[in-house]
Amino acid sequence: MTKRFYLKHHIFHIKAIFSVLKDVFENGVFADKAIEKAMRANKKWDVKERGFVSDVSYDMIRNWRLLTTSAAAEGKLTERNLWMILGTYLIFDGYELPESEYFRNVNEKKVIAQLEKFSKIRKIRESVPDWLDEMGEKQLGKNWEKTLRALNQRPSMVLRANSLLISPKELQTKLAEEDKITETSLITWSPDAVELKFQRNVFRTEAFHKGLFEVQDAASQMVSEYLNVAPGMRVIDACAGAGGKTLHLAALMKNKGRIIAMDTKEKKLAELKKRSSRAEVKIIETRTIDSSKVIKRLKDSADRLLLDVPCSGLGVLRRNPDSKWKLTPEEIERVIKIQREILSGFSDMVKVGGKMVYATCSILPSEGEDQVKWFIEQVGDRWEFIGEKRYLPEVHHADGFYMALLERKK
Description:
Elements: E1 3-4, H1 7-26, H2 31-40, H3 47-62, H4 64-71, H5 79-92, E2 95-96, H6 108-118, H7 122-125, H8 130-140, H9 144-151, E3 157-161, H10 168-179, E4 184-186, E5 193-196, H11 206-209, E6 213-215, H12 218-226, E7 234-237, H13 244-252, E8 258-263, H14 266-279, E9 284-288, H15 292-296, E10 302-308, H16 323-326, H17 329-346, E11 350-360, H18 369-379, E12 383-391, H19 393-396, E13 401-408
């Protein structure tokens, strides 16, 4: 059964979607920033209007190659092409195409035939560049098909309950009572995770302002869990960014001990300080990595070290679908080199008997298992490989993550 699309209700929203698409594909703007810009330009929109623009924009970006190929509208994003791509998207999403002058160039029967034709070609159906499809198949083999399909689905919104202040079950109750967010569920394999059935602007909720949760994917939450920290430890998060995993580590340590959060970008660490205050975390110290001396001063000092290294981000394509169009094979080679430099240069911060987790949000073995094998070959018997885990989008319905646990012996 086809759905009805009421064009007159959405004409202004469509104009905003077009501006998002042009920003992403012609101006190189990241999708989340392009959508933020559209929202700032339309401050009077309610939650439903904002949700419509965000969801449709992401869906079109996620399926961009299939849509543009089926619409025969590749090339410059002219007004005519944008309406053709939108018309193709509506047909693809099960809508009855409304009668309108805007869709005069869209032949519905032809579009359906094209969609059926190209759905048989994986790289077009799942909307990825040729090189990425080839690389994925080479590294993942027969699993690539399922992984790629899962990466091209809409993500759910997952919260991490701040266990310093509230349990996941208590957070569910709080969200239902104070913010009318009732359709939530717990994730059995991720202890602090609360999943929302529908996307919501949770940053306006009272629970968020009280520091009761952070938005963090369930697989991402398992990275901090895997480090196996305890209260009183000295822990270093060497690629902390804005500190999502740092804050989780503090909660797992029950706010006892010391965490040194490090990053090359001071602005991100400033954001971590704000988040720490909201979450009532008091054991984090931030340090900007502005020279190699910062690392050398911490030699042999940490009970635990987290290396959540820069990576391709191929495990989080569900959330950042535009990145597959910005990424290149050369960029992946570059980050693989950086990962090795970080592993080699930062691991000495762990004391003998201490442990380290190496983690990436990538589905590629070349950024995960292969890097750990390389590291063990370099360091000989000074480090021992303890174990590793992979969280797969097609199995866990979460972002793709790899993590390895190692112990320093000498």
